[in-house]
Amino acid sequence: MSPSSPTSPPSNTYERLCAILAKDYKLTPEQLTPDAPLESLGIDSLGVADLLFNVEDEFGISLPPEPVQLETVGEVAAFIDRLIAAPASFDGSPPSSSAPPQAS
Amino acid sequence: MRRVAITGMGVVCPLGHSLTEVWEDACAGRSAIQRLQGQGRERLASPIAAAVDFDGALHFDPPKLRMLDRVSQFALVAARHAMAQAGYATLPGPASRAGVFLGTGMGGIGSIDEGYRTLYGEQSDRIKPFTILLGMHNAPAAWTAMEFGFSGPNMTYSTACSSSAVAIGEAWLRLARGEIDVALAGGTEAPLALGSMKAWEALRTVASVDVQEPSASCKPFSRNRSGMVLGEGAAMLVLEPWDMAKARDAQIHGEVIGYGLFTDVGHMTRPSAAGQSAAMQAALDSAGITAAEIDAINAHGTGTEANDSAETSAIRAVFGAHADRLAISATKAIHGHLLGAGSALEAVLSVLSMQHATALPTMHLDQRDAACDLDYVPHCARAMPIRTMLSNSFAFGGTNAVLALRAPALA
Question: How far apart are the CA of A82 and the nearest CA of chain B, in angstroms?
Fold first, then answer.
């Protein structure tokens, strides 16, 4: 995780993801590297579902219903970026006309 | 039938997190019932409860903590304490002969309450992914089995206020019959969510606040009682066959010698003296002892008019003239009603009473009710030999459960 000013918001997907991991899972910057396996951070397959729920809120995106296999912090960030860039490409359906879920 | 020893006890309850703290407070009659702080208290007619001073973050890593409702956190920490006291280096045999028997009346009601608040209060569909796993009644037992590798029976009993007496009793039966070689048995409850507390209030069983002294709001067997006060927490016991405990040189804290069940089939909430006495008699019969061998009782003693008079009549029916020689303690006056965990905590207090040869006081018994004419050990603990005790638990739904317990010196 690259250093950022405590007063400025994280500037990209990876940093925003790391901010979630630091807040909700109390992980330190040293633990958070792109190659860090989620399992080694205490986040197993069930934990990934929980993490992605928070990702939806943070990024204002909606995940596809299909299960996804994400092993590392970097893979999660890349997955989020792909969703932001092409939200309909994962299930082949056309873009939804409804607004994405908003953070509550 | 094999004899069953109690070799470990652990508590996380309003009186404290260690047996020493709990014993000292119970002996001194220090009540943990307090006015509630925090959001929602203004919506309660009786904003009092016996809460546990507890921070899950001190006991669990953050990723795991996110998967644990408070009810599972209590159970796991109490189980750790019990297992530490039991002092197992390794399990005595195959993991399939180690079982978890746990009682809870309301399971992860806090998580369910939070989900409903999101759905109906905030009109949001963002229900957290773990809501089912947090809320399900068998989560505490499942987590407990996983932590200690107990692959045998994993049982959750939900018979309201007798849940953990049933859990301990059923574990005792399995051990006595030789079906398993070790059990973690007890109960856990975390019912202090707003929705749950409002529901209890609506049932009109909750005590009004004693304005002079809120901590004295629960007054079992007293003429000026007004009901029960909710509490939270967990208590767990390690049970194992007597001979196996002796063989590994374990310290034996007490013995479970009997368990009686009798179900009222008349009314959902109204206690039946006949049902309660039948459960006590069944416990005596299963232990193979007479009523005269009982020295003391930890009463169900909720502080409701219906319970206290019925329980008094039931004790008189079973014990006859010997009833006047019994020391009867209603400890809910200070730790509140832990519902599905209440019986387990009261079983632990009973074992400690026998170990310390001290009958615990029934606090706030200033004006004895005319219909409650037994020796309730009012106000002050009493030094006396206690060899054999009953611990009574009677429940909404009618499941009356009674444990018979014996002091280690006699066992």
Answer: 23
CB contact under 8 A, A25 and B67: no
A70 touches chain B (CB under 8 A): no
CB contact under 8 A, A25 and B118: no
User: pTM value?
Assistant: 0.93
**Which chain B residues have a beta carbon less than 8 Å from that of A49?**
129
Q: What ipTM score was computed for the predicted complex, to two decimals?
A: 0.80
CA dist B404 and B389 (Å) reads 6
Using 50 as the pLDDT threshold, list the residues of chain B that sit under it: 411
A25 CB within 8 Å of a chain B CB = yes
Q: Which of B17, B335, B337, B364 is catalytic?
A: B337
CB distance B83 to B10 below 8 Å:
yes
The encoded tokens of residue B89 equal 């280096």
Nearest chain B residue to A52 by CA: give it: B129
Contacts of A43 in chain B (CB under 8 A): 63
With b for 16 or more beta-carbon neighbours within 10 A and e for fewer, the B399-411 pattern comes to: bbbbbbbbbbeeb
Helices (H) and strands (E) in chain A, counts: 3, 0
pLDDT value at residue A96: 39
- In this predicted structure, what is the pLDDT of residue A88? 52
Run of H or E residues at A51: helix A45-59
User: How many beta-carbon pairs below 8 A join chains A and B?
Assistant: 37
Convert the pLDDT of each residue in B109-147 to its tens digit: 999 999 999 999 999 999 999 999 999 999 999 999 999
Identify the closest residue of chain A to B126 by CA–CA distance: A104
B338-368 pLDDT per residue, tens: 999 999 999 999 999 999 999 999 999 999 8
Residues 6+ apart with CB under 8 A from A45: none
8 A C-beta contact, residue B79 and residue B140: no
